[in-house]
Design brief:
Helices cover 41% and strands 20% of the residues. The chain is built from 8 helices and 7 strands. Strands 3-2-1-4-5-7-6 form a 7-stranded mixed beta sheet. Strand 2, helix 4 and strand 3 form a beta-alpha-beta unit.
Length: 243
């Protein structure tokens, strides 16, 4: 009989190594300021996302931030975690998982020491079941090119989520033909990954090439162009787990 657990583990380990390689390629020659809030486009996109995120969490009755246990999967250098701290999440109840050691160290450097940052593959972590009120997944699944590993991670996240809690999802829905290291995650795929979830969704984020060009002219162009839904490249969702 084939050992499916061993095969699954091998597949996830392979994909984790591939994700590390893809990020290393992406980081070569990348303008570090592109995602800094000092960049007018990055600031406009972040402000839009923050406003809509707060509204969606309020709709899900998850806006008493000091009472929430929150986990950011793929937390990068800690930007989302800092946002959550400013919103009032207790640092003792805030955790992040980051696959790349240099990003995990950068997150630890800017966050309170009591925040737990795991430098691990999320699929290898033993986090208690039904222990998290909100699990953040921002541009994580678009970096996983294996369908099977996407499904494994979605199942793991759902296992960690409390009934009544929600996954907070942000990812892009159009392929980038210039970047073979990522792929779009359309809404249909999100529904397949979290079939039991009650989804609330909004299209967000003015297409980056257009948005950057527009904001170089004037940041005031961002909301004008972003009023056209077809020009928004990402989706923001809450994926609520039934009680």
């Amino acid at each position: 009989m084939k050992d499916t657990s061993s095969s699954s583990s091998s597949s996830s380990n392979r994909e984790a190594a591939n994700v590390r390689d893809r990020y290393a390629r992406r980081d070569v020659g990348r303008d570090a300021n592109r995602y800094s809030l000092s960049d007018p486009y990055a600031l406009a996109a972040w402000q839009e996302r923050q406003r809509k995120m707060l509204s969606m969490l309020a709709d899900a009755k998850l806006n008493d931030f000091s009472a929430l246990d929150v986990l950011d999967v793929g937390c990068g250098s800690g930007g989302n975690l800092l946002d959550l701290l400013r919103l009032g999440v207790d640092p003792e109840r805030l955790q992040g998982i980051e696959l790349l050691p240099e990003r995990a160290e950068a997150a630890r450097a800017v966050l309170p020491a009591i925040c737990r940052i795991w430098n691990e593959d999320a699929l290898a972590l033993q986090i208690p079941a039904a222990s998290q009120d909100v699990i953040v997944l921002f541009t994580v699944f678009s970096s996983i090119l294996s369908d099977a590993v996407q499904q494994q991670l979605a199942a793991q996240v759902w296992h960690w989520l409390k009934p009544g809690g929600a996954v907070l999802w942000h990812d892009f829905v159009y392929d980038n033909p210039r970047n073979p290291d990522v792929r779009a995650v359309p809404l249909q795929r999100v529904r397949e990954l979290f079939p039991e979830a009650h989804m609330r969704k909004q299209r967000v984020t003015l297409a980056p090439p257009l948005g950057r060009a527009a904001c170089r002219v004037s940041p005031a162009l961002y909301p004008l162009l972003n009023a056209v839904p077809l020009l928004r490249t990402h989706v923001l969702c809450t994926l609520a787990k039934p009680l």
